[in-house]
Amino acid sequence: SLVVLFGATAGAYGAKLGSDERELILLVWQVVDLHSKKVGTLHKSLVKADNLDLSDQCREVSGLTPEGLGKAEPLDRVLQQFSQLVSGDLKVLGRSSYTLCSDGQLLIRQVLHPETSKKNFLLSDCFYSFYDLRKEFHACYPSSATVKDQTIKTMAEYLGLGTDETEEDFGVWQVKTMVAIIFSMLSESCNHIFTEPETVKYKYETGPCLPWWLFFFFLCSSKSETVDSETVIRARGLPWQSSDQDIARFFKGLNIAKGGVALCLNAQGRRNGEALVRFVNSEQRDLALERHKHHMGSRYIEVYKATGEEFLKIAGGTSNEVAQFLSKENQVIIRMRGLPFTATQEDVLGFLGPECPVTGGKEGLLFVKYPDGRPTGDAFVLFSCEEYAQNALKKHKEILGKRYIELFRSTAAEVQQVLNRYMSTPLIPTLPTPIIPVIPPPYTIATGSIRDCVRLRGLPYTAGIDDILEFMGDATADIKPHGVHMVLNQQGRPSGDAFIQMKSADKAFMVAQKCHKKMMKDRYVEVFQCSGEEMNFVLMGGTLNRSGLSPPPCKLPCLSPPAYAAFQTAAVIPAEAALYQPQALLPTTRTPQASAAAPPTVTYYPAQAAQLYMNYTAYYPSPPVSPTTVGYIAAPPGAVAAAATATHTPLLPQPGALVRMQGLPYNTGMKEILSFFQGYQYAPDDYNGLIQLSDQARSVLQAPKEWVCL
After folding, report:
1. Tens of pLDDT along 456-482?
2. 70-128, pLDDT tens digit by residue?
3. Same domain for 328 and 310
4. Which residues are within 8 A (CB) of 648 and not within 5 positions of it... i.e. 6 or more apart?
5. Does some domain include residue 606?
6. Nearest to residue 630, comparing CAs of 497, 485, 533, 528?
7. First CA to last CA distance, the chain
8. CA distance 72 to 85
9. Which of 26, 190, 625, 661 has the maximum number of C-beta atoms within 10 A of its C-beta?
10. What span, in angstroms and rounded, lies between the C-alpha atoms of 333 and 205?
11. What sign has the CA pseudo-torsion 570, 576, 577, 579?
12. Rounded to an integer, what distance in angstroms lies between the CA atom of residue 348 and that of residue 340?
């Protein structure tokens, strides 16, 4: 038997039914016995919506009023009555089973399933299988209009049936006409058989969207047919805590492919509010696009077309380990973040406890690691049911060892994304491609001991060049051209420090006196007078701390040849390091006096080592130039020649030998170093053998990681 079903909402009608999220207000149905060609009683039921504000189109087409709907029953009661009345009609006809038949798919997929999902009650099993009368009609009459262009009226006109809608109430005519169309299809001339109903998935199936070997084949063959681009959409504006099940619920009524929800992550591995969703066919995708700006909670979600290639980049897996981990069907995945690096599988299982057993024990755990095997602090866990997963989520921010652990719902696509991201992370981070801005003619940074610079410490991290200039006030007129240097940390973010070159030492002194502990935004900023040598000390790799400056590290491999001939000239940072300002980062060259006649040798810091150990510094132009260029500037071709011709000053006060110490504790001081060399002769001149610097620079050296000793 068939139950012919028709419905209407308080909003759009026809091809746009359900696209505006309006509630159901009318259901009309009738049972049809396909064997005896008998029909049951025709039933019409109004539905009371939460919002009784009817659209103009609804009022005009249906003739319904808010007053009449206000006396109706709510949807859950109407559906209960529907089941009872259909069962009674089937009993009268001597039948026990039935399948729904509707005019198209919109009523079932775009109205009933989404609305009942939002109202948190379940539809009976009969609403998960139905016949689409338009598809059945086109299969029976291939010469008729396409399925997309079919309506009840066009099908009736094709068969020569009466089409006067004014003779019956709204909904009643539609159901009676649909029943007449079905009887025509059952006639001896057609003898149509209803065999393949449309289905609605009960729940979203998790798991990998593609096996790892098929994804590898896709990469090697560059064939995009693996995932049809006509089946993929991009959802944007999702709540950050939404899971794949939440997204599947948003698209309730539409069939999402297995593992077809891929949550997108940002550069930090956190969800960015977007997801790519793959449906079983293009028809389902087109229906999903009609849910553009539908709501998930209080947020509206944007829905756009996407490509199969985009989906594979997010959801495709490349690891056999991941494929094996996700091979277990219908598992709930939980992501753990913030694990101690020493945490073992036993530690994690003990943390979760017996109330939330992990599927397969240790096999249900997947630790995320860097390419060299170091742990990242992330792990994924499989649970066999929702109850166990909920018990695990209750442990969110509980303590393991000395750290609190974050737990979130996750997806198969997120597992693959996270694993792919970490496994492709280089062991030595690299800088972005250098940006070469348009700059004025070359300029230099003073490197002497004249204290014509100031250091700003404690800047707000949001402070920019304009904030600094405003902070300086009238003193901006005394800043040298291109004399503002903001210091970034190794992550390329503001360190809270900046150096400013003034036109004279007197000007620097006055600025330090006037601006020290002056407020910038909600913080006071410390201003100290310093020299160009101290400034260069930082720009060349020295670190900043509360006590002042620490010298640049000496870990660079190949810093000098075995005979230490490199000390004859200064080390020059190459263009590849993308950190060189024209003649700006070349310190005063130091070489033994006895070797002054030796041919100059230029030693380069390796680019990767420079990226590891140097403070990345961005340079900003100062008045009167507009501060619009920020970036890394490559060294000009003449930089090496300038280094070779630079004036030499002695490094060593007297002939001797240098040794380099590595691996010192961070709190090591001069006393500990001298005790270490007890019994050996070193330069006795007030410990001047420990790096020769000006008095001002020496006064701010505190607890270095490494020292160069004589």
Report:
1. 999 988 888 778 888 888 888 888 877
2. 999 999 999 999 999 999 999 999 998 999 999 999 999 999 999 999 999 899 999 99
3. no
4. 568, 569, 589, 590, 591, 596
5. no
6. 485
7. 100
8. 17
9. 26
10. 12
11. positive
12. 10
